[in-house]
Amino acid sequence: AHVNDVTTVNAVAEPGILESFEDKRLFEYPFVYANFGDRQDWTLSEEERRNLKAYLERGGFLFVDSGIQAEFLRDDPQFAQHHSFAEWEATPELKDAFKSVFPEKSFQPLKRSHPLFKAFYEGLPDTTVLPDTVRDYVIKEKWPDGTYSSVGLEVNGRLAVLAMPTIAMGW
């Protein structure tokens, strides 16, 4: 509802669910959300690679909610992603998956000045309103150096894949 209210995007309240990128319905959606932790193996099949390449080259957008883990959880495989986006890296699994789709491309950190972050709102939320128990974590880990801890992959001169930490928790 909020997206519909503040943008010209006509967001549908009931999303379609794709079992994999092999699903031909992929091409029916201009925006696809994928939760990194929901997929056990990010090794893409040949059909998934073909579909993703065509989808992204034709203007599709893939948002990967990559998760972010506290340092003390990173070495335990049961906790999904094992690093922080404060380190400015996509997970090795995500890097490898997209290297198989676009061998010449790699994920790059998105700076605060990226147009994505200025489309409707600008600047980071006010951290003074956060509880003391999480303020330091948010400032140092989630927004290191005043950034948004995001990486992207460009296709045909535009952001086509965005990987960002734990948006689902905000939703």
Please provide a written account of the structure.
The chain is α/β, with parallel strands linked by helices. Helix content is 23%, strand content 14%. The chain is built from five helices and five strands. Strands 1-2-5-4-3 form a five-stranded mixed beta sheet, covered by helices on one side. Strand 1 (31-35), helix 2 and strand 2 (61-65) form a beta-alpha-beta unit. The longest helix has 12 residues, at 46-57. The radius of gyration is 17 Å and the shape is globular.
Q: What topology emerges from the helices and strands here?
A:
Elements: H1 2-6, E1 31-35, H2 46-57, E2 61-65, H3 92-99, E3 108-109, H4 132-142, E4 151-155, E5 158-164, H5 167-170
Parallel strand pairs: 1-2, 2-5
Antiparallel strand pairs: 3-4, 4-5
Give the amount of beta strand, in percent. 5-15%
Order of helices and strands: HEHEHEHEEH
- Distance, first to last CA: 12 Å
> What can be said about the biggest beta sheet?
5 strands, mixed
Q: Report the principal-axis shape.
A: globular
Helix run count: 5
Short summary:
With 171 residues, the protein is an alpha/beta fold.
For this entry, give a set of tags.
alpha/beta, 171 residues, 23% helix, 5-stranded mixed sheet, single chain
